[in-house]
Design a protein that fits this description.
The complex is a heterodimer. Chain A is mainly α. Chain A has 13 helices and 3 strands. Helix content of chain A is 69%, strand content 4%. In chain A, β1 and β2 form a beta hairpin. Chain A is globular and about 55 Å long. Chain B is of the alpha+beta class. Chain B has a domain at 230-443 and 461-589: DD-peptidase/beta-lactamase superfamily (Beta-lactamase). Chain B has helices at residues 2-43, 45-56, 96-107, 111-118, 133-141, 166-169, 181-185, 187-190, 230-246, 283-286, 289-292, 302-311, 350-355, 359-380, 407-413, 423-434, 469-485, 548-567, 580-589; strands at residues 57-62, 69-70, 76-88, 125-128, 147-158, 195-200, 213-216, 223-226, 251-257, 264-270, 321-322, 326-329, 332-335, 347-348, 438-439, 445-449, 455-457, 464-465, 499-509, 512-526, 533-540. In chain B, β16 (445-449) and β17 (455-457) form a beta hairpin. In chain B, α9 (230-246) packs antiparallel against α18, α12 (302-311) crosses α14 (359-380) and α14 packs across α15 (407-413). The longest helix of chain B has 42 residues, at 2-43. Classes of the chains: A mainly alpha, B alpha+beta. At the A-B interface, α6, α9, α10 and α11 of A face α1 and α2 of B.
């Protein structure tokens, strides 16, 4: 293994995104921070916490950066089982923390941990490992893809059961993305899609509240105070931003008009305060991030690393795109945070861990040109 | 081996293609999101900004000050009480301590509480509401930034003259809402336009720390200047009260109107009420009888018969009618009324019929001219509609429809029975005679002065001419005979020639005329040649003697004399010695009168 320079552009992009994120978390959370810290008013409540998470997150990033992936590769099945059991544990009353009917968190003093967020990373590792477990890309439908799905779907189901439909949905997308990238035959891909279609319809029709939510999505202005409320408030926030926005800190929607203003809907507040200038800027950052991630993937010679890099990129970028689409009413509200920007420790840590892995991979990639240059220099 | 390597290469190339495909997908998705963002934030931005504004701004109402009401001489009849509130905009205040101390000392509030309000995170707070006038003067002199003295309304109307002109003014309820009289009729222009403080709030309605605030000051209502003269009004109310009490009557109304332009100089009902405490009175007292009470006028209604007969030229002044004590119509027997004088000759003209108020004569005239002519005249006098007086609750005249009317209906209507109208309708009808034949619109509003200085004046309208000059002169002559030597001699004045008509109307209840219950009335104008004044006096159910000529005519004379003196109208007959002048004035206003 030759040690090269990591992808500094990627690191810089993440750095910018995190900076925007810290500013927006502070701006969007002051109202709610004052509301929950009524005894000792502290508008910095969420900023302080997020800053701490960013700090810890860089530690995690560094750890991921220095991981020996060839060593880790051997333990992936174990890690996967461990993660699955954590997801199972969190569902058990008394162990998982119950927050308004959802069991997503392990409660520790000072902080809570959301195993679903980490399971995203583990899932990407596992799928990449499974597809390349014979040292080569294996894309046979019956030998690889179906067994893989049978192994992966229970884990996604556990996440879905928390319930955390958004994360489960993203995990499914990521798995499909990796399978696609690994070179599955298109007719097999079509077969899988056809298989999942009736599943999706069955899922929608099973519960009445989902149908209502779908109605709210299709026509929010008809249900402005019930199922359409979230969507309308989000649109008002984004739309009232205009070209340049109302100015930093000047959001009105953050004063409890728009729920989840500092977590899942932080992009709406960004649009309100920064206008289209800010939203396009952030969108562009994610696009660049996708480009860098794919670039790293393309440069890998080892199939496992190649697939891993692509999977990690797909995982982060798909989450960002789905979140933004949800905020601007192109997808139904599924409840997932925006990577690097939304408040929340678990999401941030898992994202930074993935970036750490990508940087790790970028360093280990085989840029032949660079080798040539170093050789020439030494000569 | 080579085969394997080749396969691996192939697969790698395939996955490279796939990775690029995924990236293209990401790229086009981003493009789609960008288009959507452009649509939301640029194309539809104004729509969402409007939605946001609607959602975020809360309006705090500032009540507009209601307009005040004055009589024609500028005497105030209704006062609106303004209220003052001190508002502060904490973010704009630099020196909070000093501001708080100054305010606290003026408003006599604890400094601590003022400071706590000024250091609120809200963009807007009330410091004190309903500040007394002395403190307001002091605060006005301050010029501290971030403070605003807001003129509000206390919603309180004061009627300084008590029951004076109560039926015209009406009263207001809570919320500055006009409930009766001019207060109701002109409520829209009196109430003004509420202002408000617009403040941005959070979802729970709390004012935002750095939110924008805007004060839209209220626009006060228009001040009204009425046509009434509070002095004549006072005279009328006093005279009416005296008369109703002395005759133990049920109630009464007086209308004093300028017959030339319809300006009402006084309009009174008894019992009266005090608008300051209107809730203490029963609805029947609050009712404005002069415009809403329908009654059968009795002989004053002979005006319509005479006008119809003369204007249609179907009879002449010298045409003679048989002087029977009764006639039979449709099987009913019509007598001369007891207040009319008995006919002295076998034949008499319309002069006698009006002068002595002969019902049989009136009926004969009506039967001669016929239903059509008679009804045409009723319609000409506007009895099929309202007078259009600017007071609420005016009632429509009641009489049998043209097609349904039988001979007997026509006969009784000829002397004012079987037809019911309101005092204001009758006053208008006599005004037509007084002003030379024009159907004027009685009104109480002279001017409305809006806060921006614009003045609305009630337009001078002569109205439609409905009587010929000849008819008008004949009618004036006939009605002057009534006072000169007919039933209305008690209305005769020493220095003014007047014309008028007495009326004693029977009161019907459930289709039966009540025994001994009458409406005594007198309506007349003065001076005859160029009338300046028309007065209608109507007393309901006086005790015996209940004739219009004995109950209402003296009140009429008294009031007319005093009013003429007050208006300074020169005498038209008799000779006045200068020395008499003072005595007369005393007579007019009483020796202890405040109008001396």
């Amino acid at each position: 293994m030759k040690y090269k320079k990591p992808d500094m552009v990627l690191l810089f992009l993440v750095f910018v995104l995190l900076s925007v994120g810290l500013v927006m978390v502070f701006s969007s959370s002051t109202g709610i921070a004052l509301a929950i810290t009524r005894k000792h008013p502290n508008p910095y409540y969420f900023l302080e916490r997020q800053a701490l998470w960013v700090f810890i997150g860089f530690g995690v990033l560094l750890a991921a950066y220095h991981l020996d992936l060839d060593l880790i590769k051997k333990f992936i099945p174990w890690i996967y089982s461990l993660c699955a059991s954590a997801l199972l544990l969190v569902l058990i009353p008394g162990i998982g923390m119950d927050v308004s009917g959802a069991r997503r968190w392990f409660h520790f003093p000072f902080f809570n941990v959301q195993p679903a967020e980490f399971s995203k990373v583990v899932l990407v590792l596992f799928v990449s490992w499974f597809i390349t477990r014979k040292g080569n890309l294996s894309t046979s439908l019956w030998k690889t893809v179906i067994p893989l799905l049978l192994l992966v779907l229970p884990m996604i189901f556990l996440v879905y059961k928390e319930p955390d439909f958004g994360t489960a949905f993203l995990m499914f997308i990521t798995v499909m993305g990796i399978i696609f990238v690994s070179g599955i035959q298109l007719k097999d891909m079509a077969f899988l899609s056809l298989l999942s279609l009736p599943l999706g319809i069955f899922y929608m029709l099973k519960a009445r509240y989902r149908l209502k939510r779908l109605q709210g999505f299709l026509n929010p202005w008809k249900h402005p105070y019930t199922s359409g409320y979230h969507i309308i408030q989000s649109l008002i926030a984004v739309g009232s931003g205009g070209w340049l926005g109302l100015g930093l800190g000047a959001s009105r929607q953050k004063f409890f008009y728009l729920p989840d203003q500092h977590t899942d809907y932080i992009f709406a507040i960004l649009g309100e305060e920064g206008g289209i200038l800010a939203t396009l800027f952030v969108l562009l950052l994610f696009l660049f991030l996708a480009a860098r991630g794919m670039n790293i993937s393309l440069k890998q010679s080892d199939p496992f690393k190649k697939i891993l890099a692509a999977g990690l990129t797909i995982s982060i970028v798909s989450q960002a795109l789905v979140n933004i689409a949800m905020v601007i009413h192109l997808l139904p509200p599924v409840g997932i945070p925006l990577p690097f920007l939304s408040y929340g420790g678990s999401s941030l840590l898992s994202c930074l861990f993935m970036i750490g892995l990508l940087l790790n991979l970028s360093r280990a990639s085989a840029p032949r040109k660079v080798e040539m240059i170093t050789r020439l220099e030494s000569a | 081996m080579v085969q394997e390597k080749f396969e691996k290469k192939l697969k790698e190339r395939k996955s490279t293609k796939r990775i690029l495909l995924v990236f293209y997908f990401v790229f086009w998705s981003s493009a789609l999101l960008s288009f959507r963002l452009f649509q939301l934030q640029v194309i539809d931005s104004s729509k969402f900004q409007r939605l946001a504004r609607d959602e975020h701004t809360e309006k705090i109402k500032i009540h507009a000050l209601r307009g005040e009401i004055f009589d024609r001489h500028g005497k105030v009849l209704v006062i609106s009480v303004p209220g003052y509130s001190e508002a502060a905009f904490p973010p704009k205040i630099k020196n909070k301590l000093k501001t708080a101390e100054t305010l606290a000392s003026i408003l006599r509030l604890p400094v601590k509480s003022v400071i706590s309000r000024l250091s609120s995170t809200s963009s807007f707070v009330w410091i004190r509401r309903k500040i007394s006038p002395q403190k307001v003067e002091k605060i006005k002199k301050l010029s501290l930034p971030g403070l605003e003295l807001i003129r509000d309304s206390t919603g309180k109307q004061i009627y300084p003259s008590g029951s004076l002109a109560c039926d015209i003014l009406g009263f207001t309820g809570i919320d500055d809402q006009g409930l009766d009289g001019v207060e109701l009729y002109y409520n829209k222009i009196l109430k003004g336009k509420n202002g408000y403080i617009e403040a941005e709030t959070d979802e729970l309605g709390r004012i935002l720390p750095d939110g924008k605030t805007k004060i839209i000051p209220p626009v006060s209502g228009a001040d009204l200047i009425l046509t009434i003269s509070s002095r004549i009004q006072y005279l009328a109310q006093e005279a009416l009260k005296k008369c109703v009490l002395s005759h133990h009557a049920k109630n009464g109304s007086i209308i004093v109107i300028n017959p030339n332009n319809g300006e009402i100089l006084a309009l009174a009902n008894y019992p009266a009420f005090n608008p300051n405490v209107y809730w203490k009175y029963s609805p029947s007292v609050l009712n404005d009888l002069a415009v809403s009470d329908l009654y059968e006028p009795g002989s004053t209604g002979k005006l319509f018969t005479a006008a119809a007969a003369l204007n249609s030229r179907k009879i002449t002044m010298s045409e003679k009618f048989l002087a029977h004590p009764f006639i039979n119509v449709d099987g009913w027997r019509i007598h001369n009324a007891a207040d009319g004088l008995e006919p002295t000759k076998p034949m008499h003209t319309i002069k006698r019929i009006i002068q002595d108020s002969l019902n049989v004569g009136a009926a004969s005239i009506a039967l001669k001219i016929g239903k059509k002519t008679f009804y045409q005249m009723l319609y000409k006098f506007g009895l099929n509609g309202l007078t259009g007086i600017d007071l609420p609750g005016e009632a429509y005249c009641l009489f049998p429809g043209y097609k349904r009317a039988r001979k007997i209906d026509l006969a009784t209507m000829s002397y004012g029975q079987g037809i019911a109208l309101t005092p204001i309708q009758l006053a208008r009808a006599y005004s037509v005679v007084a002003n030379g034949g024009y159907l004027i619109r009685p009104h109480v509003l002279k001017e409305a002065v809006f806060p921006d200085g614009t003045v609305f004046k009630t337009p001078e309208q002569k109205g439609q001419k409905i009587l010929s000059r000849k008819t008008d002169q004949d009618l004036k002559y006939l009605f002057s005979l009534v006072i000169k030597k007919g039933t209305g001699t008690m209305a005769q004045m020493r220095y003014y020639s007047a014309a008028g008509k007495t009326g004693t109307g029977s009161i019907a209840k459930n289709g039966v005329y009540l025994h001994g219950k009458y409406t005594a009335s007198f309506v007349g104008f003065v001076p005859v040649k160029h009338p300046k004044l028309l007065i209608l006096v109507k007393i309901t159910e006086p005790q015996y003697p209940y004739w219009g000529g004995t109950v209402a005519a003296p009140v009429w004379k008294n009031l007319a004399e005093k009013t003429l003196w007050y208006l300074g109208i020169p005498p038209t007959k008799g000779r006045i010695k200068i020395s008499l002048n003072n005595n007369l004035k005393d007579e007019a206003f009483g020796s202890h009168s405040k109008f001396k």
